[in-house]
Amino acid sequence: MIVITPMKDKDIAAVVEIEKLCFKFPKPEAIFREDEHKYLVARDDDQIVGYIGIEKVLDEEHIINMAVHPDYRGKGIGRRLIQHVLNDEEVFFLEVRTSNETAKDIYEKYGFKVISIRKAYYPDGEDAYVMRRIPGE
Ligand SMILES: CC(C)(COP(=O)(O)OP(=O)(O)OC[C@H]1O[C@@H](n2cnc3c(N)ncnc32)[C@H](O)[C@@H]1OP(=O)(O)O)[C@@H](O)C(=O)NCCC(=O)NCCS
Question: Are 81 and 44 within 8 A, CB to CB?
Fold first, then answer.
């Protein structure tokens, strides 16, 4: 059974491993330690299988990132993570690589819309879509 809980110190090593498996430019462990309070983890029994990061930026909620271990994808864990953080009172926004159809698809299913493009947002020069979710839209 998948359970979602705040990330603790002891979870960080597993989160960093998933980060490395999922992203071309993984964030270092020090960032996760510094931002520990911003992350939630998805656990399948004792195993960390995914995580999501969220922070308040001015008056909007920013989804920093989300990832699911490659062995656990397509089972609804990404959906569970996003459902866990969303609410119908606040505005949410995020950036996603323009090539990342999978992530864009999942965010669109939860009401996010592309509002702009940030040119060369990523270190390899790829653009990002900025997506926003406004309650009631
Ligand atoms: C994006 C990600 C978190 C989705 O996690 P997941 O647990 O596999 O997602 P779910 O099983 O909950 O699927 C939810 C939706 O994602 C989309 N999706 C999942 N797998 C997909 C695939 N192989 N191809 C296309 N869309 C897919 C579908 O819209 C799916 O909706 P459905 O349930 O109606 O089919 C995961 O693919 C991942 O970790 N990717 C690498 C990291 C990343 O890109 N993170 C996002 C950065 S902004």
Answer: no
> What is the per-residue pLDDT across 64-74, written as a single tens digit (0 to 9) for each?
999 999 999 99
Residue 52, domain extent: 2-133
pLDDT digits (tens, 9 = 90+) for 98-111: 999 999 999 999 99
Q: How many domains does the chain have?
A: 1
Task: Assign residue 26 the CATH number of its domain.
Answer: 3.40.630.30
Alpha carbon nearest to ligand 1 atom 39, residue: 67
d(CA 30, CA 50): 18
Give the span between the Cα atoms of 102 and 11, in whole angstroms.
26
- Here the tokens at position 17 are 């491993």
Q: Among 48, 102, 127, which is best to mutate for testing ligand 1, by the most ligand atoms less than 8 A from CB?
A: 102
Paired tokens of 46: 């004792």
Is there a catalytic annotation at residue 107? yes
13 alpha carbon to ligand 1 midpoint, in Å? 23
Å from CA of 16 to ligand 1 middle: 19
- Give the pLDDT confidence of 40-65 residue by residue, as tens digits: 999 999 899 999 999 999 999 999 99
